[in-house]
Amino acid sequence: MKKLLVSLAAAVGLAAGSAQAAYPERPITMIVPFAAGGPTDVVARIVGEHMSKTLGQQIVVENVAGAGGTTGIARGAAAAPDGYTIMMGHMGTHGAAPALYPNLKYDPTKDFAPVGLAAGTPILIVTRKDFPAKDLKEFIAYMKANSEKVNEAHAGVGSVSFTTCTLLNSLLGAKPSRVAYRGTGPAINDLVGGQVDYACDQIVNLVPQIQAGTIRALSIATPERSPSLPNVPTTKEGGLPEYEVSAWNAVFAPKGTSPEIVAKLNDALVKALDDENTRKRLLELGGVIPDKAGRSPQALQKLVESEVARWTPVLKAAGATAN
User: How far apart are CA 203 and CA 124, in angstroms?
Assistant: First the structure.
């Protein structure tokens, strides 16, 4: 009897090992928690394309927008931990959300198996092309005098655009009308159309519009100018050195996903980030490629924990909430 039990246990172990060794055997869904066309969607599609080649199965992007990205991430967190549903999260969904959503259905630090960081994305302050302020100094003065007449576009409470503009508004003492969209793509479309006045957004989504002159870039919130937009001054140059912030996008799997599957996904992500064409596409959009040390699941876990610790006091002090 004991021998039979041992044999059965061994058979089950072999079957599980074989299943993991064969992974993936069918397409993988990558949930992007915003509408198509936004920065998180763009990064997901660029890295997902190369990851598909490495894994030998298609990564299919599913856009699940709503509640500042938390709707899609909550769905991903509740998915089976079998490697066939993964998520492209970011600073908003995994850093700011706990301070903004008291009833958040997931814990960014505990309910995921981190896979790896995909890209860093500097933040830009942008306006409609005919906004009265021509640079950051004029914008600061204009907002201090007229902020209640101004409309700000963002991708929903908890999104990167909402969070980073919350910090900006707090620093300026500004109280604009805040217009929510189901993703940054639709928000920027309305900024191009002149229906809203300004936004804080990730550079990945803005370079083409800035270069085309359909929107105006006032400043980039990084210590140095971006090679993608060398004519856009930093916030320090523009007179607001305390506004220095960058976002990020990263791949997560549901909690309980096996270490072997996480390792395969991480390997595919790392190979995508080492691919010359993938790097070129991300860099042309202004993205920052994480270094080798920053690509591991362990590094991503530490990043999430540090971001939750950073943004919780900032957002609570600003009185920001989803309710």
Answer: 6
Query: Could you tell me the CA-to-CA distances from 224 to 51, 230, 298 in Å, in that order?
Result: 31, 9, 28
User: Does the domain at residues 122-220 carry the CATH identifier 3.40.190.10?
Assistant: yes
C-alpha to C-alpha distance for 133 and 216, rounded to whole angstroms:
10
Inter-residue contact 266 to 115 (CB < 8 Å): yes
Q: Where in the chain is the domain with CATH 3.40.190.10?
A: 122-220
Contact assessment for residue 20 and residue 261, using Cβ atoms and an 8 Å cutoff: yes
3-state secondary structure of 125: strand
Query: Are the C-beta atoms of residues 31 and 37 closer than 8 Å to each other?
Result: no
Query: Strand 85-90 vs strand 112-128: parallel, antiparallel, or unpaired?
Result: unpaired
pLDDT of 317 reads 85
**C-alpha–C-alpha distance, residues 64 and 75, integer Å:** 9
The span from the first CA to the last CA of the chain, in angstroms, equals 60
Query: Domain 26-121+247-317, what fold?
Result: D-Maltodextrin-Binding Protein; domain 2 (3.40.190)
Residue 89's φ and ψ, nearest 5 degrees, are -90, 180
Answer positive or negative: Cα dihedral of 130, 35, 284, 228. Answer: positive
Q: How far apart are CA 125 and CA 191, in angstroms?
A: 12
What is the per-residue pLDDT across 192-204, written as a single tens digit (0 to 9) for each? 999 999 999 999 8
Q: What is the pTM of this model?
A: 0.84
Q: Which tens digits make up the pLDDT trace of 296-314?
A: 999 999 999 999 999 999 8
b/e per residue, 246-270, with b = 16+ CB within 10 A? bbbbbbbbbeebbeebbebbbebbb
Nearest alpha carbon to residue 220 among 192, 201, 193: 201
Nearest to 287 by CA among 237, 250, 253: 250
40: left (phi over 0), alpha (psi -120 to 50) or beta: alpha
Q: Where are the domain boundaries for CATH 3.40.190.150 in the chain? A: 26-121+247-317
